[in-house]
Design goal:
With about 280 residues, this protein is α+β, with helices and mostly antiparallel strands. The chain contains nine helices and 15 strands.
């Protein structure tokens, strides 16, 4: 049984409030090239990442002292109950470091291991897309007095779709290369508007496909509830609706099976005998 204030709607309200506040912290560093350090996995981290996550952790501990927390920068705090917050203070740190406004603050909340709440906040754009299980997905836009319902597009043909991925070159160098080329060639067009911003575009009906071959739990945590509550589909590359699969594909739902089939068939073909792939040009 949930404790007072732990219902999905209440958790969503707190998560959205704190995502915006953490985003304001990042904006204090945003707008020019930002210095960074390299973490053990080779990815960059900035002072803004650490300050934003510290703020989020402190806010959660003060209001929900029994909740668990998993964050990209400071690891895991094991809670006493069924609720765990999953934090990425800056998703798209490389974009942030270059003054590109397509980075996000991500908050996901699991309840008894199920992704129940997701917030994707875009500080430099003044947008937020957020959802809670059974409560729908909502889109706060710059200058709007109230949010509007976020819905995926009704596109039913790949030829009419916008396909996105974060790092096209990384995909081209992976086992997904053939499949992704097929998707891109059949789609209306493709772009590199990536990281969580691409998934937010799918949830708000502005794109139909977003591929992320590599996702950590803090990258994926808000994506599943946001996309699903908007009427779309989020799975890993194997088709499992999970934030722990190590990869992620968001679609408007109508195209999901076709996209996964294209990626999996091409992967199988590339592993077969006689594959003569050379270096990507």
């Amino acid at each position: 049984m949930s404790r007072p204030g732990e219902e999905p709607r209440s958790l969503l309200e707190a998560a959205r409030e704190w995502a915006v506040a953490a985003g304001d912290i990042t904006l204090g560093y945003f707008g020019e090239v930002v210095a960074a350090q390299s973490k053990g996995d080779g990815t960059p981290v900035t002072r803004a990442d650490r300050e934003a996550e510290t703020f989020l952790r402190n806010a959660i501990r003060e209001r929900f002292p029994t909740h668990g927390i998993l964050g990209e920068e400071f690891g895991e705090h094991i809670g006493e109950g069924a609720v765990r917050w999953i934090l990425d203070p800056i998703d798209g740190t490389r974009s942030f470091m270059r003054g590109v406004p397509l980075y996000t603050v991500l908050i996901g909340i699991e309840v008894e291991g199920r992704p129940e709440v997701g917030v994707i906040h875009m500080p430099a754009l003044g947008e937020t897309v957020a959802a809670a299980h059974g409560e729908g997905c909502w889109w706060w836009r710059p200058g709007a007095a109230s949010p509007v319902r976020a819905r995926v597009s009704g596109v039913g043909e790949l030829s009419e779709a916008l396909a996105l991925t974060t790092d096209a070159l990384r995909v081209e160098r992976s086992e997904l290369a053939r499949g992704w080329r097929r998707v891109r060639e059949e789609a209306d067009f493709s772009r590199g508007w990536g990281d969580a911003y691409g998934h937010a575009l799918v949830a708000t009906g502005r794109a139909e496909i977003m591929l992320d071959p590599e996702l950590s739990p803090w990258d994926a945590a808000p994506l599943l509830p946001v996309v699903v509550e908007a009427g779309g589909t989020f799975t890993d590359l194997s088709g499992n609706a999970t934030i722990h699969g190590g990869s992620g594909v968001s679609t408007n739902g109508r195209l999901h099976a076709e996209v996964l089939t294209a990626l999996s068939e091409a992967t199988i073909a590339s592993d077969g005998p006689g594959d003569q792939r050379g270096p990507v040009a």
